[in-house]
């Protein structure tokens, strides 16, 4: 059967860190859960649409079960068609959903995992031990099948390690407690993101469109975004001492964050300086740094009697170079005009 697995990823401008650190989005909560659509729904829907365009239709296999919760059971029952294995996707045309394990109990799922060898040769005991170690303190993993080597342990849930929608990440806390101490910096950083979300000093009073924000709680301030980036890179550096392959943020995201800072006229913080402070090395975006410094010094010398105008020209050059980093010039004219308008208005007020 034509069954295959594809890993879908959000576009760079929709990634978590570009939105939070680059654009200043507050981390998600139950009232503002922007992450699900940007990180999960959009990239997957885009891929499915491509498959439908190519093949005419598509079937998606999902691992949902009725016994997960009363809410999940109602959702499955609402969309299923009596006597049919497939149900129509609620949003995508010519797309069908197949839930092969929807009637299974948790213990039956673990029986299959433990009793039947993985078709692709993976050791399922590794998977079982991860769930065993991640099980919360208030849940005991029962033994339910034929011998002591078969058990059931799947009450724990796994999602994004940065998830601030949940009150407490019990799975990660249990993993740390059961021997994976290297995850502690991840747990602490997630907790910090949650605790500092609604601190008024960390937020602008206006929204990104310039309108007054509810309770003066707009996007994160430039200073706090820079602090978050430094904290994230510190955690990444610490984890890389345990495993050099761990990467919490990509170089492409770092570049996109700098582009968004320039776009918001945040010229006072440089991603490269924060990165170099921690890693004592250079980013790909640093290739022209010496040349840029010489240009900036020359500009200040020429405009020493008109410092504000010199800074304006320097900022406009930064906007132009940021577009080159992203290999796209769309919107450059609008951003330059906005910066010029802001400069003129400031001069009038003074």
Can you offer a commentary on this structure?
Strand 2 (86-88) and strand 3 form a beta hairpin. The chain is built from 13 helices and three strands, in the order ααβαββαααααααααα. Helix 5 (124-134) crosses helix 6, helix 7 runs antiparallel to helix 8 and helix 11 runs antiparallel to helix 12 (307-325). Helix content is 49%, strand content 3%. Strands 1-3-2 form a three-stranded mixed sheet. Residues 142-148 and 284-291 have low confidence and may be disordered. The protein has 350 residues and is mostly helical. It is globular and about 80 Å long. The chain has helices spanning 16-22, 35-55, 70-79, 106-115, 124-134, 170-177, 184-195, 222-240, 251-263, 271-279, 289-302, 307-325, 332-349; strands at residues 58-61, 86-88, 95-98.
**Over the alpha carbons, how many angstroms does the gyration radius reach?**
25 Å
Distance between the termini: 71 Å
Structural class: mainly alpha
String of helices and strands: HHEHEEHHHHHHHHHH
Average pLDDT:
82
Secondary structure tally, helices: 13
Overall number of strands: 3
Query: Largest sheet, order of strands side by side?
Result: 1-3-2
């Amino acid at each position: 059967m034509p069954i295959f697995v594809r890993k879908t990823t959000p576009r760079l401008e929709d990634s978590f860190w570009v939105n939070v650190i680059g654009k200043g989005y507050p981390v998600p909560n139950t009232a503002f859960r922007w992450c699900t659509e940007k990180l999960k729904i959009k990239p997957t829907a885009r891929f499915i649409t491509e498959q439908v365009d190519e093949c005419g239709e598509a079937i998606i296999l999902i691992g949902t079960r009725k016994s997960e919760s009363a809410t999940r059971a109602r959702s499955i029952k609402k969309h299923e068609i009596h006597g049919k294995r497939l149900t129509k996707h609620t949003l995508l045309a010519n797309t069908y959903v197949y839930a092969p394990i929807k009637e299974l109990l948790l213990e039956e799922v673990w029986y299959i995992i433990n009793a039947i060898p993985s078709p692709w040769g993976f050791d399922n005991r590794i998977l079982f031990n991860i769930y065993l170690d991640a099980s919360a303190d208030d849940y005991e993993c029962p033994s339910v099948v034929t011998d002591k080597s078969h058990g059931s342990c799947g009450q724990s849930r796994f999602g994004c390690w940065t998830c601030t929608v949940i009150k407490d990440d019990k799975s990660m806390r249990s993993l740390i407690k059961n021997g994976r101490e290297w995850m502690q910096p991840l747990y602490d950083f997630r907790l910090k993101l949650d605790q500092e979300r609604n601190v008024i000093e960390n937020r602008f009073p206006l929204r990104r469109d310039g309108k007054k924000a509810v309770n003066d709680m707009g996007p994160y301030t430039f200073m706090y975004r820079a602090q978050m980036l430094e904290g994230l890179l510190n955690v990444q550096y610490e984890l890389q001492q345990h495993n050099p392959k761990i990467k919490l943020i990509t170089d492409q995201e770092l570049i996109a964050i700098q582009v968004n800072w320039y776009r918001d006229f945040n010229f006072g913080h440089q991603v490269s300086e924060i990165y170099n402070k921690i890693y004592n090395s250079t980013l790909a975006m640093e290739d022209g740094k010496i040349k840029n410094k010489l240009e900036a010094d020359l500009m200040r010398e020429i405009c020493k009697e008109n410092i504000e105008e010199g800074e304006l020209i320097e900022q406009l050059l930064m906007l132009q170079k940021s577009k080159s980093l992203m290999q796209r010039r769309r919107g450059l004219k609008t951003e330059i005009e906005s910066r010029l308008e802001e400069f003129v208005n400031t001069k009038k007020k003074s």
